[in-house]
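I'll show a record.
***
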Amino acid sequence: MIIAMRLKSDAFIPLMLALVLASLSTLAGYGRCLTGACAVIPMPKALAAAAVPQQGPGRGQVSAPRDPELEKQSVKSLEAAWFYFKKRLDKSDQQATLKRLEQIEGRLQEILDTYPAFSRLDEVYFLMGEVNQRRGDKEKAIEYYSKISKEFADSRFTKEARKRLDELTGSRTNNKG
């Protein structure tokens, strides 16, 4: 039996003892216990907690795993939203422009409603800010740009979001990034 996880150093000996005792109790279950006094010994909670792999920087994922099907669906919706956002608009037809922006916002809102754990949520917030800025809804645009600035400091959209915030508010935000 091989254990392929990092253990806290102070938990190694008790864990090995528990594994030995567990293997003896397994032998007792199959009638191979030599002394006949073998019993099933439950693992103490402290030992069970020590066997959980550590998480954090350099050790793997900290957040819950994402749903691959919802992730794929959200990526497709986001790509469609970007496509329609970048598509040339007839500037003389204001109604068609507003309708397209509403459709884009609808796709993005669907992502936010159905899958709030989306891996590219910063991009969704940025595009929502862009759409609202183009529609003239300054308050909503500021709200989405601020979310990027606060919740996704390491995002590739943070610098641009802060620049947009400066334009919309007329002030200088903390322009690190």
In short: Residues 81 and 104 are 5 Å apart (CA to CA).
